[in-house]
User: Which sequence fits this backbone?
């Protein structure tokens, strides 16, 4: 669960709204983690909802997952809807990028 002050903001970007909520720091890298949403709904309602989720610990982000792990999970899920050669090429590209 996230401990500390939960912060967020609503920013107007042209005709759209952007909601940003801080979820703390990544324990591995120490980098700041944020949830960002653009919503046609009332941006302040979206901010309130996200702040409650983060405050209650229901929005944990990716935790200790690396980019390589996320990409491999995505490929396992998406493989069923793509051509075999496309999946093999993506897998090879991931192997070259992440296993080097």
Assistant:
């Amino acid at each position: 669960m996230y401990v500390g002050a939960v912060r967020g903001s609503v920013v107007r970007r042209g005709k759209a709204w952007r909601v940003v909520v801080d979820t703390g720091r990544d324990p591995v890298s120490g980098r700041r983690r944020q949830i960002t949403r653009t919503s046609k709904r009332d941006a302040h309602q979206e901010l309130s909802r996200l702040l409650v989720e983060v405050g209650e610990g229901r929005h944990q982000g990716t935790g200790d997952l690396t980019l390589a792990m996320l990409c491999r999970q995505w490929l396992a899920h998406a493989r069923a809807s793509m051509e075999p050669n496309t999946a093999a090429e993506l897998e090879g590209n991931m192997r070259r990028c992440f296993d080097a």
User: Anything to note?
Assistant: The chain has three helices and three strands. The CA atoms of residues 4 and 18 lie 23 Å apart.
